[in-house]
């Protein structure tokens, strides 16, 4: 029975964020702990009456504190480029490549001396914990990509498949060819292109290559994704004992709905989270 695209699309979800999606606090705490000693040393600058002298003294006695300076500006790089009226400068915080006077200038011009001297912060460790939390929020995009993968994997497991026995994560074309002695040159451009599938499910009679994604917001990438998966499905259809299954979802598809519908019309195995919850894996992967 042919599925109705509009009915299928109406069940798409707005988000699938779990509790750990927003901030990875374990990572935040680890990053702060790795530099906690140096941060405590910098605490001595808070409220300093002669901050330039005190900073220079710290650099002479504890030059390792330099590695903490970039994070005070919410920067992870160990070298920070700056352009001023005198030209281009690069300040290195991996090793003491600049002069002490140059580091003093950097601290003064970036406002870091004011941050300490005027007691705008009261504890450097707490301040950096806040900075790390803010920076980690930028990682939501990467975590969001894994949310759908993890969700699909839970359904693969609940369908009775066993990791490294009947299902495999992140397999390349050449891995599939070697493991099951199949010829996938039709989708690898005669071995010139290497593609990695999110999952591969193996049954007695079939190999299922699986792609997953979730889009909470739109963009040009969605149109390209729909077109490329349509082509991939058509190429895979020429290979015996190989089936392409695509799990996608998200309200981001709204602006790319027409392209998704074109793929839906020609691709037999494209499903969403509602389909997964309805047990589609047990029906498809047999």
What's this, in brief?
The chain has helices at residues 5-10, 25-33, 36-42, 51-61, 69-72, 100-109, 112-117, 124-136, 140-158, 173-180, 185-188, 220-236, 257-266, 273-277, 280-284; strands at 79-84, 87-92, 167-172, 196-202, 207-214, 242-249, 270-271.
Question: How would the blueprint of this fold be written?
Answer:
Elements: H1 5-10, H2 25-33, H3 36-42, H4 51-61, H5 69-72, E1 79-84, E2 87-92, H6 100-109, H7 112-117, H8 124-136, H9 140-158, E3 167-172, H10 173-180, H11 185-188, E4 196-202, E5 207-214, H12 220-236, E6 242-249, H13 257-266, E7 270-271, H14 273-277, H15 280-284
Parallel strand pairs: 5-6, 6-7
Antiparallel strand pairs: 1-2, 3-4, 4-5
Helix pairs in contact: 2-8, 12-13
Task: Record keyword descriptors for this entry.
alpha/beta; Trna Endonuclease, Chain: A, domain 1; 15% strand; elongated
Describe what you observe in this structure.
The protein is an alpha/beta fold. The chain has 2 domains: 5-18 and 139-284, Trna Endonuclease, Chain: A, domain 1; 25-138, no CATH class. The protein is 47% helix and 15% strand. The chain is built from 15 helices and 7 strands. The protein has a 5-stranded mixed β-sheet. A two-stranded antiparallel ribbon has the order 1-2. The longest helix has 19 residues, at 140-158. 22% of the residues are buried. The model has no long low-confidence stretch (mean pLDDT 94).
């Amino acid at each position: 029975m042919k599925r109705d695209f509009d009915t299928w699309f109406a069940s798409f979800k707005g988000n699938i964020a779990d509790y750990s999606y927003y901030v990875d606090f374990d990572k935040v705490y680890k990053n702060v702990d790795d530099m906690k000693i140096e941060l405590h040393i910098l605490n001595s600058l808070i409220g300093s009456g002669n901050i330039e002298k005190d900073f220079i003294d710290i650099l002479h006695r504890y030059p390792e504190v330099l590695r903490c300076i970039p994070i005070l500006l919410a920067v992870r790089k160990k070298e920070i480029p700056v352009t001023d009226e005198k030209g281009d400068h690069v300040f290195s915080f991996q090793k003491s490549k600049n002069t002490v006077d140059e580091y003093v200038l950097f601290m003064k011009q970036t406002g870091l001396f004011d941050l300490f001297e005027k007691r705008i912060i009261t504890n450097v460790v707490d301040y950096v914990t806040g900075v790390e939390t803010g920076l980690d929020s930028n990682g939501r995009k990467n975590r969001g990509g894994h949310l759908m993968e993890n969700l699909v994997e839970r359904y693969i497991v609940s369908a009775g498949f066993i990791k490294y026995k009947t299902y495999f994560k992140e397999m390349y074309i050449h891995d599939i060819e070697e493991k099951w002695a199949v010829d996938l040159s039709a989708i690898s451009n005669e071995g010139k292109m290497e593609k990695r599938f999110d999952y591969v499910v193996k049954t007695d009679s079939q190999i299922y290559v699986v792609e997953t994604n979730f889009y909470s917001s739109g963009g040009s990438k969605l149109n390209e994704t729909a077109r490329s998966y349509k082509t991939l499905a058509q190429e895979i259809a020429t290979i015996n004992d190989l089936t392409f299954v695509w799990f996608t979802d998200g309200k981001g598809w709204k602006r790319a709905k027409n392209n998704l519908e074109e793929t839906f019309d020609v691709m037999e195995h494209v499903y969403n989270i509602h389909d997964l919850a309805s047990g589609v894996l047990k029906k498809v992967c047999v």
